[in-house]
Predict the structure of Basic 7s globulin.
Amino acid sequence: MLGGQERQLKQMYKKGASSSISSYISNSSMAPFLQYLFPFLFFLVISSSQAQNSFRPKALVIPVTKDANTLQYVTTITQRTPPVPVKLVVDLGGQFVWIDCQSGYTSSSYRPAVCRSAQCSLANALPGCSDCNNTPGPGCNNNTCNLSPQNGVTEFITGGDVSMDLLTLKSTDGFNPGVTVNVPQFIFACTRTFLLEGLASGTTGIAGFGKTRIALPSQLAAAFSFDRKFAVCLSSETASPGVIFFGDGPYSFFQGGGDVSQTFRYTRMLNNPVSTNGVALRGEPSYEYFMGVTAITISGKDLPINTSLLSIASNGVGGTKFSTVAPYGILESTIYKTFTETFISEAAAMNITRVASVAPFTACFSSNSIVSIRGRLQVPSVNLVLQSRSVVWPIYATNLLVQAAEGVSCLAFVDANSIEDVAINPLASIVLGGFQLEDNFIQFDLATSRIGFTSMLYDYTTRCSSFRS
């Protein structure tokens, strides 16, 4: 049993092969013009859906569930005519929604984007037009434009038609789900079945939340004219879903009401000029979410690390990134060494017993030696210092230690050097994986480039699974 678990943990960090599609892709000479045209196109293409809804929501909500086998986070949306529930893996840094259209995609409201149309420009589609050599249908059309759907888990990449179909979601007042609303021409990429490899069973694609005009948050904000904000609350329980909100608060997880956003602390959202995605094209800008960390403390003492690694360099290396496709945190190798050695030393001072490592983790401890007081595990405190000493991101024990085997708790971070191909792909110095984000409530404000966050919701006697979905 343990051997299987070890293999599962190792497999989550094994890199897949990448396609040689890069020769097919080039930068468009129209890029400067399109940069100024995008806002107009966005209004023209997306806002037409507003007239389709007599009710204009201020916010939308979708569930998100942790898959027990892959530790990926899965949401369910309703798409097509007649409506079909579609399960997608959540990728915070994904550029757009892509769906397998090769395996029985049927919908009377499906439409391919016409080559050189406003939809193709809005999607920043690849140059040129494509034709279908087989029977035309979803994913195989004549005179259409293409994108490059990417699987951030396996690092596979392929081509896919820019497509449109009906999308149906639930509105919310922040306290309860409300009536359903429609986006008649939601833009996504139609692609092939093989790209699903490595994704959670039953899923048919990826929901991209990145900083692009056709990612899920931006399309929904444009369709209903609400703020370009979304808030993520990942549940640590596989049996109880968390939630993702689109639009502003209130956000309530309490029986008697109460707005969690009133407890937010804020930090700046940073841009990375180069993608850290392993399947990104050379020099492609990042659509992922970064924040600025200026120091790391353990038990109140600064780690003696090269602080220049905490900044984002011009080649895209460095900084601190959020990820929902990395199950656990990833640290640049020198930071990892100092971090683990210091934590082990501080844990020993608290009489926490170190035990044999469980791959892919190296710093592991006897769970029985960790004292719990009022439900909180007593371990060395870890904080990410942000723009000032008064603004910190605390990593509490529940986001710090994972039960990797029976009676064994391990520091839930891995060494970036243990990941294949790290030398050829720019990487963030700190990646906060899904485990570090669980039961934290995080708002990404794309309009103001600001990130709002709470401490663990446990501090407020609630959890991400407490929203009344």
User: Anything to note?
Assistant: The two ends are 35 Å apart (CA to CA).
